[in-house]
Specification:
alpha/beta; Rossmann fold; 36% helix; 13 helices; 9 strands
């Protein structure tokens, strides 16, 4: 018997002999003293009864760096201060690393050339991506960083926005449900844009694989739809583990994602086909979230379209916490900036925000208020006509009508 177990049993015996632990307590009978009476009412909140406490803590707290407050009169001062604070909170600014880019595959399609590339975003990562180039391109073209969504689909990343010709059945279904069967990157290149999409950390070729799942192998083309379902659930269950591990490493998940997105712009401007003065970004859901932060952090983004990810934060506390991934939480951000403030950091450059009135990931009131605050921020920055906010009476999607509106908007701002 170990010393620890012997000590435990001796202590237990002493408590029993001294009357501190009765047979009734051991048997699980209720305590002798009842709890004070308390009325219990439904909260309709993700946090149950503790929502009241959190709401009380949040109430009245200012956003220290809000552009619509009195701290900043000049938009450039706001952007400089806000951007530095955001980078500080993200906890990931690795040492510079050469891109060391290489093309590992090349495919000729009817409307474009598709290259699979690898490049370094830091000393730690070689990131895979697809570059789509219009056929018969003459001169440098405008370019778009197409940022893939989450959607509970960890096994695929960059493939979500691209028609590869031979698509996994899971991607055919995903694109049908989220993009009305027309993935955005393929449509953008058909309309004359050079497009790049990479795998975000924990998605696609950068996904997590547990020891118990090694039997499925690495080649996703061999996965059945049931394999995809099982492996996605395994990844979903490990989001919290990833965040805990990165926290102990002194890092954040969104910090890695946003850094890789900025380095994607570094790679894009190195391409001979790209006009570095005409670069935009777009994405839906987590892709919209990434587009919002990329436009805020990187001055080279000349026009940004944020689709299906915009709200003020406070209204989301009650019933829109569990609807979001851990990648959507930047620790400490809400002391300084609300999400509309982050979006306004793109001012005075053109910004389009597309929202869905039937989107259950966000409170409608928060979505509407966010558009009003961005509009007010752009007006304060002297760029009122550079912001457009649109609502569509649809659920959380990026359908063809929304895509057409976004591409027409890019044409106006990147094809001058």
């Amino acid at each position: 018997m170990s010393d620890d177990r012997r000590h435990f049993l001796e202590t237990l015996g002493a408590m029993t002999a001294g009357g501190l632990l009765t047979s009734a307590a051991v048997a699980g009978d209720p305590p002798a003293l009842p709890d004070p009476a308390r009325a219990l009412r439904p909260s309709s909140a993700d946090l149950g009864s503790l929502y009241v406490d959190v709401e009380r803590l949040a109430a009245g707290r200012p956003y220290d760096y809000a552009f619509l407050g009195n701290r900043f009169r000049d938009v450039n001062e706001f952007k400089k201060t806000g951007r530095e604070k955001l980078l500080e909170l993200l906890l990931y600014r690795p040492e510079p690393a050469p891109l060391r880019a290489e093309v590992v595959e090349r495919a000729e399609r009817e409307t474009h050339i598709r290259e699979k590339v690898l490049f370094s975003t830091s000393p730690h990562f070689r990131v895979p991506g697809y570059v789509l180039i219009p056929r018969n391109l003459r001169g440098r073209a405008p370019a778009i960083v197409d940022l893939h969504s989450h959607g509970g689909m960890f096994l695929f990343g960059k493939e979500k926005v691209i028609d590869l010709g031979r698509n996994h059945a899971a991607m055919i279904d995903y694109q049908r449900r989220n993009y009305e069967g027309r993935p955005t990157a393929t449509e953008l290149v058909r309309r004359g844009y050079v497009v790049i999409s990479i795998d975000a950390f924990m998605f696609g070729e950068r996904r997590l694989i547990m020891d118990a799942d090694l039997k499925h192998g690495w080649d996703r083309s061999r996965y059945s739809l049931d394999d995809v379902r099982v492996l996605n659930l395994a990844c979903r269950s490990k989001e919290t583990t990833l965040v805990k591990a990165l926290t102990w490493a002194g890092l954040t998940w969104p910090g890695i994602v946003f850094w890789d997105d900025m380095r994607t712009v570094d790679y894009l401007v190195s391409r001979p086909e790209v006009d570095r003065e005409r670069i935009g970004c777009v994405g839906v859901s987590m892709g919209g979230y990434r587009a919002c932060f990329l436009a805020a952090l990187d001055e080279r983004i000349q026009a940004a379209c944020v689709t299906g990810f915009m709200s003020t934060f406070r209204p989301m506390i009650q019933a829109h916490v569990d609807t979001h991934s851990w990648v959507h939480y930047v620790p400490g951000l809400q002391k300084y900036l609300d999400l509309p403030d982050v979006a306004t950091m793109h001012a005075p450059k053109p910004l389009l925000v597309q929202q869905c009135t039937q989107d259950r990931l966000f409170p409608l009131a928060g979505m509407r208020t966010s558009v009003e605050r961005i509009a007010d921020g752009y007006a304060k920055a002297g760029a009122k006509d550079r912001f457009t906010g649109r609502f569509y009476d649809v659920p959380h999607v990026f359908n063809r009508a929304m895509q057409d509106d976004a591409i027409d908007w890019f044409d106006r701002h990147l094809r001058k």
